[in-house]
Amino acid sequence: MLKGKEIVLGVTGGIAAYKAVELLRLLTKAGANVHVIMTRSAEEFVTPLTFQTLSMNPVSTSLFNLISEREIGHISLADRADLFIIAPATANFVGKIAGGIADDMLTTTVMATKAPVLIAPAMNVNMYTNPSYKENEARLKERGYQFVEPAKGLLACGWEGEGKLQEPQVIFEEVVAALTPKDLAGESFLVTAGPTREEIDPVRFVSNHSSGKMGYAMARAARRRGAAVVLVTGPTCLAAPWGVETVAVESAREMLEVVLAKAGASTIIIKAAAVADYRPQQRAVEKIKKTDAPLVLELVKNPDILGELGKFKGERLLVGFAAETGSLLENAAKKLTEKNLDMVVANDISQEGAGFNVDTNIVKLLFRDGSLEELPLMGKDELADVILDRVAALRQRLAASR
Ligand code: CTP
Q1: pTM for the full model?
Q2: Contacts of 244 (CB under 8 A, 6+ apart)
Q3: Is the CB of 328 under 6 A from ligand 1?
Q4: Is the beta carbon of 223 within 6 A of some atom in ligand 1?
């Protein structure tokens, strides 16, 4: 995801500096080459050795260290970087950059770069709301510096409020988003994900093996590419994607209700949810007690959400998924026509590495014009981007034909 990207991670002196270690791990795991610059006070909280070991690059701490200046060189780092992320950023650091002060390795390099700079502040709530800090922040925003706003919560100083460094996963998400071209800006996505649960009684339900990973990957990728995204999700173990309006539902009928309410405002609908096709005819109010006689459950058909959407599709793009265990293309083509779709992502879930509960997928894309594209085994994040590439191309073609 960040393969080939040169990122400078600036760490300033705050107790949240330990979280920068986790951020570094996320960045390197995603393929980035990370160069860490620490301020003098940051070294009081975490040692340079930790960052050096995990980044596999020398850590810069002093502007006037002859060896480090020869090996790293603050200007060459400023030129080479695709992006700077300062996490945590103290009020002192923000004030210095806003005031044009460059008196150490980090401030000098930040002032010398033309790369985008993301600043993730962390400080006491009273410092964060201090007019002096706010003025500095506003000045930097005006100049194009981007901020990863701090979270609210219990602060290390004992106060409660805004000023908590955002979670490393959120900062990572903002780094990826800042490096992603916004080719889907202006689009409004509605994505569904996960299974639905159809209750039998207060303790049991009918469901399926969907993990929600594919739908969540689609929602994340669309948001990174600049779209506004609503995610309607059945029960999953996944964290709600950052920057996405997430609505949690349980049953197919609840999903239908939310989807219909949100569909009007959307331009692209991606229906990755594995909706339960049937629900128990009656939900028992009390727990069903076991007896020696066999238990027969009468199931009735659930509404076909995608089928309903197909009826009033208009200029919207509709993308469906087809999870099959046989006659893949035939079944997928049938869904494409019957549900009035623009594209179907078809996967044979009996193949190893495809389908439910894994991080990869092997799919075939079928289009309304009859064309077919076979994709190799790939990670769900990567696949989400390929699907969005095709969606963007379809939108462009549609716009050109108007
Ligand atoms: N879908 C839906 N509502 C349903 C069932 C399916 O919106 N009640 C959507 C899914 O989100 C998916 C597509 O329809 O995008 C195909 O789902 P799938 O389960 O593969 O097929 P079904 O249409 O349910 O048909 P079958 O179970 O017979 O294969």
Answers
A1: 0.93
A2: 219, 220, 223, 229, 230, 231
A3: no
A4: no
Q: For residue 300, what are the β-bridge partners?
A: 279
The CATH T-level fold of domain 188-401 is Rossmann fold (3.40.50)
Residue 167 Cβ inside 6 Å of ligand 1? The answer reads no
Active-site residue, 157 included: yes
Long-range residue pairs from 146-152, CB within 8 A, at least 24 positions apart, any chain: 146/116, 146/117, 146/118, 146/119, 146/174, 146/178, 147/118, 147/119, 147/120, 147/121, 148/87, 148/118, 148/119, 148/120, 148/174, 149/121, 150/120, 150/121, 150/122, 150/123
Is there a contact between 210 and 273 (Cβ–Cβ < 8 Å)?
A: yes
Among the residue ranges 43-47, 273-277, 350-354, 388-392, the one predicted with the least confidence is 350-354
Taking the domains of the chain in order of start, what are their residue ranges?
Answer: 6-178, 188-401
Query: Which pLDDT tens digit goes with each residue over 255-265?
Result: 999 999 999 99
How many Cβ atoms from other residues are within 10 Å of residue 27's Cβ? 26
Probe residue for ligand 1, chosen from 192, 218, 300, 306 as the CB with the greatest number of ligand atoms within 8 Å:
306
Q: Where are the beta strands (DSSP E) in 110-150?
A: 117-121, 146-147
Q: Which of 115-119, 320-324, 353-357 has the highest mean pLDDT?
A: 115-119
Catalytic annotation, pick one of 151, 157, 239, 393: 157
Tokens coding 64: 């006037």
Q: Is the pLDDT of residue 67 over 80?
A: no
Whether 321 is in the pocket of ligand 1, judged by its Cβ within 6 Å, is yes
Looking at the CA of residue 273, tell me the nearest atom of ligand 1. Answer: 11
* Model confidence pLDDT, tens digit, residues 134-154: 999 999 999 999 999 999 988
Residue 277 beta carbon below 6 angstroms from any ligand 1 atom: yes
pLDDT at 70 over 70: no
Cβ proximity of 93 and 20 under 8 Å: no
- Per CATH, 6-178 and 188-401 having the same topology is answered yes
Q: How far apart are CA 130 and CA 368, in angstroms?
A: 57
* pLDDT confidence of residue 66: 63
d(CA 23, CA 177) in angstroms, rounded, equals: 15
At position 378, the amino acid (one-letter code) is: M
Indicate the CATH number for domain 6-178.
3.40.50.1950
What's the confidence (pLDDT) of residue 155? 85
CA distance 309 to 260: 8
Gap from CA of 359 to ligand 1 centroid (Å): 21
